[in-house]
Design the sequence.
C-alpha cells in the first residue's frame, strides 16, 4: 500500500532570536524541506512616517534611532542629509569627519551584533559573549560624546550636536589599534569550526543576477560579487578623500560569503577610523583652520546656546521658538540615500513651506531583503532557514516602521 505524502504548514515565530524584533513566518514543509515561506510583518508597526509628518523637522530625528536600533547614527545621518538638501546648506569639513567617524563606529557595532547573534543561532555561544564585550567599549564612546548609549540623536541638521574631545579621540585610537587582534581571537572560534562552515557553506545561495533583480544592497549585494558601495560611488560627506579603504565581495553568494563580507568590512571600518582620528586631531592643533566648527553658523537652524546661557531675554525667546516652531522650509523635495551597515537606507522628504515635512518616506534595506526569503530558502532544510535569516541581519524596527 502506497503512503500519501502531504505538505504541512507551521508557524515560525511570531518571535525568533534570528530576527531582532517581531517576525512571523508561515512555512510549508515536505518533511523537513522548505517548500514555501510566507513572511507576515507589520506586527511592530508604529506609523513612523506619519508620526514624523506631524512633528517639526528636528523632533523627527529621534524616530531614526528607533528604526534600526543597532545602526542608529547611520539613520540619523541620512535624515539630516535630506533636511540639509532641503535647506541647501553645506556642513563644515570637521563636522563631516565626525559624522564619518561615528558612522564607521556604527558599522562595527552593527556587524558585531549581526555575526555574534548569527553564530548563537547556529549554536556557538562564546563569540556572542566576546563580541558584546567589544560592543560595550564602543558604546562607551557613544555615551561620552552625547550622553546616550543607544538612542544617540547626535548627528543634527547642520553638523553634530557637540564637539569631540582629544581625550575621546585618543582613547578611541587605542581601542582601534587592539581591535583587529581581538577580532582575530573571536573569529578563530568560527574559522576552524567545521560545524559553522558546514552550516553556512552553499546555504542561501543568491546568484550575481538574482541579487540585483531583487534589489538587495549592502553585504547581501556584495556577498554575491557585486562591487557596489555608496561610500565610493555617491561621494556623500568626504569618503572619496579616504579611498584607500577597500570594498569586499564574495564569489559564491552563500551565507559564508556574507559572513566574510561583514568581517572584512569591520576591519576596513577600523582602518578608516584611525585615518579620521589623525585628521580630526589636526583641527585641535590648529583651531584657526577654516571649517573647524562642529556646526554651521546659521541661526535659522542652530539653537542659540550662548545667549541662552547669559539669560538674555531675546535669545531665550529665540531658544523657545526654535524648540516649539522649528524652522520653515520652502516647498521642495529631497531624496538621500546612505550606505548603512545593513544596506542602502534612504529618506525622502517633501516640504510645503511649513516647519513640518509634508511627506516622509523611509526605504529600509531589511524590507527588500526579507522579500527574497522565499526564493533563498526554497528546497533547504528547516534548520537552514535559521541560518539564512541570521545572514540577512534583519531588524524589524526598520522593516515594520
Sequence:
Amino acid at each position: 500500500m502506497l503512503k500519501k505524502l502531504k505538505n504541512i504548514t507551521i508557524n515560525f515565530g511570531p518571535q525568533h532570536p534570528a530576527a531582532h524584533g517581531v517576525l512571523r513566518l508561515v512555512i510549508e514543509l515536505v518533511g523537513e524541506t522548505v517548500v514555501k515561506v510566507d513572511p507576515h510583518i507589520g506586527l511592530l508597526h508604529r506609523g513612523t512616517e506619519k508620526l514624523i509628518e506631524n512633528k517639526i523637522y528636528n523632533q523627527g530625528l529621534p524616530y531614526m534611532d528607533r528604526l534600526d536600533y543597532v545602526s542608529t547614527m547611520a539613520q540619523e545621518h541620512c535624515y539630516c542629509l535630506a533636511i540639509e538638501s532641503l535647506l541647501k546648506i553645506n556642513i563644515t569639513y570637521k563636522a563631516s569627519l565626525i559624522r564619518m567617524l561615528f558612522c564607521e563606529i556604527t558599522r562595527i557595532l552593527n556587524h558585531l551584533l549581526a555575526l555574534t547573534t548569527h553564530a548563537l543561532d547556529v549554536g556557538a555561544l562564546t563569540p556572542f559573549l566576546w563580541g558584546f564585550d567589544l560592543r560595550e567599549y564602543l558604546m562607551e564612546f557613544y555615551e561620552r560624546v552625547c550622553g546616550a548609549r543607544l538612542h544617540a540623536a547626535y548627528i543634527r541638521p547642520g553638523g553634530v550636536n557637540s564637539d569631540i574631545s582629544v581625550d575621546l579621540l585618543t582613547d578611541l585610537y587605542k581601542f582601534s589599534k587592539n581591535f583587529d587582534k581581538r577580532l582575530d581571537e573571536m573569529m578563530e572560534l568560527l574559522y576552524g569550526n567545521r560545524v559553522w562552515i558546514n552550516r553556512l557553506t552553499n546555504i542561501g545561495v543568491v546568484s550575481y543576477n538574482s541579487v540585483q533583480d531583487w534589489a538587495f544592497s549592502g553585504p547581501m549585494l556584495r556577498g554575491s560579487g557585486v562591487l557596489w558601495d555608496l561610500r565610493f560611488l555617491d561621494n556623500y560627506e568626504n569618503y572619496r578623500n579616504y579611498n584607500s579603504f577597500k570594498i569586499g565581495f564574495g564569489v559564491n553568494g552563500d551565507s559564508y560569503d556574507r559572513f566574510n563580507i561583514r568581517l572584512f568590512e569591520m576591519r576596513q571600518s577600523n582602518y578608516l577610523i584611525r585615518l579620521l582620528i589623525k585628521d580630526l586631531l589636526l583641527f585641535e592643533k590648529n583651531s584657526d583652520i577654516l571649517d573647524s566648527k562642529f556646526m554651521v553658523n546659521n541661526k535659522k537652524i542652530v539653537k542659540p546656546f550662548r545667549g541662552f546661557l547669559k539669560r538674555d531675554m531675546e535669545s531665550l525667546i529665540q531658544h523657545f521658538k526654535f524648540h516649539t516652531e522649528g524652522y520653515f522650509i520652502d516647498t521642495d523635495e529631497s531624496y538621500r540615500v546612505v550606505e548603512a551597515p545593513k544596506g542602502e537606507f534612504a529618506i525622502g522628504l517633501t516640504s510645503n513651506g511649513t516647519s513640518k515635512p509634508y511627506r516622509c518616506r523611509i526605504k529600509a534595506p531589511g524590507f527588500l531583503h526579507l522579500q527574497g526569503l522565499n526564493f533563498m530558502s526554497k528546497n533547504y532544510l528547516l534548520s537552514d532557514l535559521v541560518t539564512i535569516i541570521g545572514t540577512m541581519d534583519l531588524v524589524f524596527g526598520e522593516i515594520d516602521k
